[in-house]
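New to this. Look over this protein:
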Amino acid sequence: MTLTCPTCGNEENFVVKTLRMHVVHLEDSRIEVSDETQPAVLEVLCDECEAAVNMADFEEPLRREMILTISSR
């Protein structure tokens, strides 16, 4: 699996901007997360030149691995 910036050729560091929603439950002085969504990838940028990288161009195994890795954090 490889990912390459089409502008500068970087293959190592990328910025992945995500959005993740949480539903929190407040009871007395406690706050608990009662529900959360999987992160939605909004944008992928090269960390070297900040060029946009189109996630639709990723190979399916790479796209799946990226989503799983982000979701596990």
